[in-house]
Request: fold
Amino acid sequence: MSVERWAKNKARQTLRRAIGWPESQEVLDLFGLSYWYEGNLWEPPVQLALRDLCRAGDVVFDVGANFGGLTTVMSRMVGPRGVVCAFEASPRIVGKLQRNVVLSGCANTQIFHAAVYHTSADTVPIYCGSHLNDSIYFDESGQGAMYSVSTIALDDFVESTGLAPVVIKMDIEGAEFDALNGMTRLLEAHKPHLMLETQPQDSRCLDHLLAAGYVAMDLNSYRQVRSAADYPAATDIRNNLYIHQDRLAETPYRMPFTFVEAGVLGVNDFSIDADGSLRQKSPLPLERGRYVLDMAFAAQGTDNEMMCGIRQGGKDVFRYHAYSHLLAKDYRDWVLHLDKAGDIEIYFEFKNGSRDPTFAFENAHIKKVQEFDNVVSKPYF
Reply:
């Protein structure tokens, strides 16, 4: 479950309470992405890699497109000569995806309502998750099987359409290994770059792709991943980038990276509001380039709402939105790219009158990734 999906669900609950809307009434249609011309901060570490690797005219796949937060980014990166194939299995989500794709003017995008799987023309159940994190696998926190949907193997899809992807982003709630087993020919022939949401305790995708000649990198820490031991301790969600060793030279992701200390902020560098929100007292000047921030903070709150991130010139350039315990557990390492030098301000804000008395900030270590000094982030037009 991404933090953005949690925020959508939280916003729906807030509106229902405010207007007295029945809990069974579907009001999710009122919520979509920001207007396309306002930019996009959806899943920042994954989005940054997509901006680096999706080129004008490419064919790219978004497997598990959900609301389309990253579909629209991919659409704008490949431009009018490119093609985006967006796959979404959930019947209750796919309409929201189409709405956002249309409203964002993504004329180069085609939506496919099917579960990407190891075989085609099968039928699998769709179990409704608690926060629009629907899956073909049962989750005790969800609502049970509500739908069934047909399957497609990407090997068959590529053979049928002639569309071979350069980049594949995949987030299908635990079914990623099933999908990989249905794209053996695709991986061997085209060696696409892959971005997969990963549960560190499940190494099947990692082992499979390493054996196929790929190099893996944790997109949240910019550290190479060779085994589960390379993930931070006690995390449940990571996003991995996989680049085939034959294609590393055409990308800026040639590991290992060189990290240069750019600053350390402690508790005394922040002021505390009455509601427990933290704000940086004085801006921190940074050079242009890419940075990894290790944010050391703890929190146990599960029924609150926190927005945290980085502002430059008063505008958000990095942002997460979820309950504080989720952020403290799985979203402590942030990745930021600055195309120009400037001052940044880190913040943690509690929203809608919520707060978490267990929230405790320790420090922020900011390191520059030297190999990206000459990389320019592609704009979101």
The radius of gyration is 20 Å. The domain at 259-372 is CATH 2.60.120.260 (Jelly Rolls). The chain has two domains: 3-186, 259-372.
